[in-house]
Every structure is written in structure tokens, then in C-alpha cells.
Design a protein that fits this description.
Layout lengths: L28 H15 L2 E6 L4 H14 L4 E6 L3 H14 L6 H12 L3 E6 L12 H6 L7 E6 L3 E4 L14 E6 L5 H10 L5 E3 L6 H5 L4 E7 L3 H9 L4 E2 L6 E2 L27
Parallel strand pairs: 1-2, 6-7
Antiparallel strand pairs: 3-4, 3-8, 4-5, 6-8, 9-10
Length: 279
């Protein structure tokens, strides 16, 4: 990970923690190379997830380290999920890392599992929200005192104004809900959204440092519904046919290699579908 606040507490004793790859301002290139080399020697492979909003200098550092080490054992996965969505996805990959999957399958599983993360936020304003489409009408409403909006960024963008008849589209399978409150009350998320989505439990976590910038306001409550059970994650990933990358030879699932980004030579199978109550 590229930030310590994106490393959520493990859900069980088997889930390992994650390494934090520091930005250039906090760590010299030599130190970054040494640390990465130790990680590779200890674990064999490195799967690094980072947000698309990561500062360019930090992203450049990640690619530079991989280039200088001249290794094909580092996967750099750039994601469009909001910060808390990336955090729960990272924890899912941490859970799967103790299973019998290869590093290539785990890296490419990030794209598959991201379809099952329902990431959004409660906002008091959408005037500076540029991550999803916002209509002029919604912009105008955000200037009204007391207005609040519920926004879903993944898997499909959606924006509603609280108090109306429209509801956020939730998952049709069993999930838990991670909730991170900023300068806004989280009561609507825990008392209204969670029951509507029939979540099996809520987890309050700290608001990631990057969240106010991602959502355009510090008055935010970020949330992410996710699959918490490693057995369900395992079933989901193992249900997809494993391919071998024709370019680097790494195992993968889906349509693209997580390590070299090469597309598969043949059409990949569609990802599996879960139904509510899956265990």
C-alpha cells in the first residue's frame, strides 16, 4: 500500500498485514530499493495497490523502483476506487494471500473483486466532486443549507439527495459495511443505509487521509460494502478459469495479467455471480 491508513485491521488471525511503500519525500530511492528488495526476498512477489489519485511523484517512484530492480515480480495495480474501497479490497487480497493461489492470480483478482465492492460516501456538498458525473441540478441543490447527498462511485456511479424517494443501489449478496466518518455524522449510514442493504455487520474505521480530497469535502462519511468471508472470496476467485500470460508466463484470471498488464491471448470467462445470502 501507499499509505498506512489504507491498511485495515485484519478480520482474523490468519490475515497478514501489508507493507507501506513510502513517498519520495519520506524515503530516499536507495532506502526504497533496499526495502523492496527485502520484501521480495522474504515473500517472493510484491503486489502493490495504489489509487489513481496518488501524486505523480509517488507513482513515478513505484515504477522507478521496479525498473531499477529489473524484476518481473512486482505488480503495480492502479485503481479508480475511492480510498476506503481500496482499503477493503487490499484486505481481501491479504486474506487470499494465505490460500493456495499464485501471486499472479492474486494480483489479477483485484479487478474481479473490485466489482463486488460497493464504495460510496455521504456528503454535505457535491460542488467539488469530480470523480463521478454531477448534474447542474445537483450542484444547485448542494448550495441549499442542510442538503446532504449519498454517492456511489463503484461498481456503478449513482448520486441521490437525501430525503427523496430514490435509493442507493446496494449489493444483492451478503456483505459487511466499513464506515469511516469525517466531519459529518454517520447516523444515516449506520441507521438507514446499512439496514436497507441488509449488511451483516458494520465496522467503524478511521477516515483515510486522501478521502476528503477524493470526495471534494472534509464533511464526508465514506463507506464500503464488501465480502468479508475468505471462503466466499476463495470460491469466487477459484470459479474463474486460470490462464497463463503469454508474455511473462504468470498465472492470471480475467482478461489481463496483473504483473505485466498484457491481455490474455483468448477470451476470458465472465466473472462469477453471487446472490444474497452467499456463505
Amino acid at each position: 500500500m501507499t499509505s498506512a491508513d489504507l491498511v485495515l485491521p485484519p478480520t482474523d488471525r490468519q490475515t497478514p498485514t501489508a507493507a507501506v511503500l513510502q513517498p519520495p519525500a519520506n524515503q530516499s530511492l536507495d532506502a526504497a530499493l533496499a526495502e523492496t528488495n527485502v520484501l521480495l526476498e522474504r515473500h517472493g512477489f510484491l503486489v502493490a495497490l495504489y489509487p489513481s489519485s496518488l501524486p505523480a511523484a509517488h507513482e513515478h517512484r513505484l515504477h522507478m523502483v521496479r525498473s531499477v530492480l529489473e524484476t518481473d515480480r512486482i505488480a503495480l495495480l492502479k485503481l479508480d476506487l475511492p480510498p476506503l474501497g481500496i482499503a477493503v479490497l487490499t484486505r481481501q487480497l491479504r486474506q487470499l494471500s494465505v490460500c493456495d493461489f499464485s501471486a499472479g492470480v492474486i494480483a489479477s483478482a483485484a479487478r474481479l473483486l473490485s466489482h463486488y465492492v460497493y464504495a460510496g460516501a455521504l456528503l454535505n456538498s457535491v460542488t467539488k466532486l469530480d470523480r463521478i458525473p454531477v448534474s447542474l441540478k445537483s450542484h444547485a441543490k448542494s448550495w441549499m443549507p442542510g442538503s446532504q447527498f449519498a454517492v456511489l462511485s463503484n461498481p456503478e456511479p449513482q448520486l441521490i439527495k437525501l430525503g427523496g424517494e430514490e435509493k442507493l443501489t446496494g449489493p444483492e449478496f451478503a456483505t459487511q459495511l466499513a464506515v469511516a466518518a469525517g466531519q459529518l455524522s454517520s447516523s444515516w449510514v449506520t441507521e438507514t443505509l446499512a439496514p436497507a442493504w441488509q449488511v451483516q455487520g458494520t465496522q467503524e474505521v478511521g477516515l483515510p487521509t486522501a478521502s476528503p480530497g477524493w470526495w471534494g469535502t472534509p464533511k464526508v462519511v465514506e463507506f464500503a460494502a464488501f465480502l468479508p468471508d475468505v471462503s466466499v472470496l476463495y470460491q469466487l476467485v477459484s470459479s474463474v478459469r486460470i490462464e497463463q500470460c503469454h508474455w511473462c508466463g504468470t498465472q492470471l484470471i480475467g482478461d489481463r495479467c496483473g504483473f505485466c498488464s498484457a491481455p490474455v491471448a483468448t477470451a476470458a470467462e465472465p466473472h462469477a455471480v453471487l446472490s444474497r445470502g452467499a456463505t
